[in-house]
Amino acid sequence: MEKNIVHIVPQVEVKVIECGPLRIGGHVRIVLPNGAVLVKRRTFICRCGRSKNGIFCDGSHTL
Ligand code: FES
User: Which end of the chain is more exposed for a tag (fewer CB within 10 A), N or C?
Assistant: First the structure.
């Protein structure tokens, strides 16, 4: 068995949704610009910049 090989089991999955948000599955800690901390099990992060819900997707990318 080789040394220095670390087997990491991913705890979080980030799925890139084509023309949509990033779907993050797994417990994540999100630190907002104002210092507020959110812990979420699953979330969708806006990539289009049109969301009226801060960093979170509100479906506006479909408009
Ligand atoms: S990706 Fe959905 S509102 Fe931006």
Answer: N
